[in-house]
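Researcher: I'd like a structural prediction for the single chain below. Treat it as a standalone chain; there are no partners to consider.
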Amino acid sequence: ANQEIVATQSRRDELSDVARTLLLLARWVHCTGQKQKEDVLNIYSRVRELQPKWEKGFFFLAKYCDDLLVDARRRQEESQESTLNKDGSSGKRRQGGATGKASTTDDKHWCDYLPDVILYYAKGLHKGHRHLFKAL
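Model: Treating it as a single chain, here is the predicted structure.
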């Protein structure tokens, strides 16, 4: 019975180490831009699977989604401004559509990121209060 307890604790420690390593990897990839958005989100989801009660996983996922929102908003506003400057009127923009990255089919409107950002920050705060002021 004692060996089972030790084995269970060892397994938990191993999962925790893997989750920490994956979180470091996700944060590094996020900061350096080494991977596509889906790859980074997959790494964060793996961290959440390994440590579902860990606030850090949710907080840094929320921070990543927040950065996606800010970046999408900036690109979409720049694209809209450049389209207005080229066309001279908003009528042509509606017919021709926006140009650049903001108009690609895989790029969501920046507002679509907002529910995920709020949800992940809230889940992180539900798990702990260590990142309370950063989340607000």
